[in-house]
Amino acid sequence: MSNDLLWKVPEGEHVKLKKYDPDYVHPSFKRDGAEETLGNLGKEMGELQELLSAAQHHSLLMVLQGMDTSGKDGTIRHVFSQVNPQGCHVVSFKVPTPEEAAHDFLWRIHNAVPPKGVMGIFNRSQYEDVLVVRVHNLVPEDVWKRRYKEINHFEKLLADNGTIILKFFLHISQDEQTARLQARINDKDKAWKISSSDFAERKYWDDYQKAYEDALSQCSTDEAPWYIVPANHKWYRNLVIAQTLVDTMRKYKDEWKADLEERGRKELAALQQLRASNEVKGL
Ligand code: ADP
């Protein structure tokens, strides 16, 4: 179902963002009732997270990228409202600290990936090192150019070790960004969200789109796919991300349950042995 709702980038696809409509809404999802649908998906996500957490077989990593104001924070707030905070780990990547900058670009990322049983959410990610870094020439071209391959190797390593990876690009139009920035200026309650750098970055819109096209084209793999999310409508963005996460986790549900049942059987058998040897008092 996911693929009709948003766009999973096939490995090797040459992405042109202009071909993807940020206003797109699949007819099966309606604005009316969106909250209820999101609530139901959230409930199921919470149940699946419990299984992921108990089974300890996999971790889940969700990468969120998008232009300024595309809704990374809002997505996290709405999509994960019903998951157990104990099993969830959100990391926001900012300008590297001197210590981070003194290491290879994946050092801080690797340090932040979720361990088994945990849902990790990256608000920005390793992709900043082929986005902002490329747009602002923060390293020489030959350095950022080889990073696509390095990222693919890194993500393969994570996937080989049981990390379920989903990467979402929140696709908004430039007009929508203008409207969202304008809303922050007009609304005193939203003014705290104003960041002068967001305004300064706007003149690099085309450069960022190009950098995103290359990242999406070169780093969408079977084990770590990119999804382009039509994100002009916030309610729709939340629904399709929640739906894609739930669809992906559902595929592992039987495996996680079978594993837990097997563990339960073993524990009961061990308990019976203890009882037989009279070492358990009162049970
Ligand atoms: P956000 O915009 O995510 O809410 P901030 O306003 O603190 O949070 O922005 C974080 C900034 O850190 C962004 O401008 C982003 O481009 C920058 N950043 C993240 N990773 C890197 C990196 N590897 N190199 C340079 N800048 C980075």
Describe this structure in words.
- By secondary structure, the protein is an alpha/beta fold.
- It has a single domain (20-276), classed as 3-Layer(aba) Sandwich (Rossmann fold).
- The protein is built from 11 helices and 6 strands.
- The structure holds adenosine-5'-diphosphate.
- Adenosine-5'-diphosphate binds next to helix 6.
- Residues 31-253 form the Polyphosphate kinase-2-related domain.
- InterPro entries: P-loop_NTPase, Polyphosphate_phosphotransfera, PPK2-rel_1, PPK2-related.
List the main descriptive attributes of the protein structure presented here:
283 residues, alpha/beta, Rossmann fold, 6-stranded mixed beta sheet, 6 strands, 51% helix, globular, binds adenosine-5'-diphosphate
Fold blueprint:
Layout: H1 2-5, E1 7-8, H2 34-55, E2 59-66, H3 72-79, E3 88-92, H4 98-101, H5 107-112, E4 119-123, H6 132-135, H7 141-160, E5 163-171, H8 174-186, H9 196-201, H10 205-218, E6 226-230, H11 234-276
Parallel strand pairs: 2-4, 2-5, 3-4, 5-6
Antiparallel strand pairs: 1-6
Helix pairs in contact: 2-11, 3-11
This protein binds adenosine-5'-diphosphate.
Adenosine-5'-diphosphate is lined by residues 92-96, 123-124, 128-129, 132-133, 195, 197.
